[in-house]
Amino acid sequence: MSETSETPLVGVLALQGDVREHLAALAEVGAHARPVRRPEELAEVEGLVIPGGESTTMSKLAVIFGLLEPLRERIRAGLPVYGTCAGMIMVAEKIIDGRDDQETLGGIDMIVRRNAFGRQNESFEAAVDIKGIDGGPVEGVFIRAPWVESVGAGAEVLATYGDHAVAVRQGNVLATSFHPELTGDHRVHALFVEMVQRA
Q1: pTM for this model (two decimals)
Q2: Which one of the listed residues 21, 46, 103, 181 is annotated catalytic?
């Protein structure tokens, strides 16, 4: 555990995806940040970011590295988790357009559609107003991004783009369709670090 709650130890699941960018963003907003690849590293952190990448590959690697069940257990026990893009898919209860054998971690009662915003060459940036974040819209980078088809009663939609939810929170779990770590704006990471400190 970290020395004080002011500087929590936050891990970034380092199986695949833009790990380095998340580590840098977390450090910018006052967290101790480290990559997590093994169950013993997961056991030490007070919060966890699940980055973008390829959700089917990530779920397979979580099984191979012995992390799937430890991740599920810690999420159920209240570990603050933030999933971006593929990470949003990983914390959903159900997936549309996933592989039949694709595993999720759960944490947010929502149904997510994979690659809903289109292929890699249809990636785009858009201003997104997020409930609970002051100072105007956040610039969202959408890369083969999912969207949320529906949420259960326990989940709160924090932001929409078009007709679809793109930021959702339930308890200690936060998820966005987009990649805030790819911009210089670290307000979403700051919100997550606050969640870790409160937990």
Answers
A1: 0.93
A2: 181
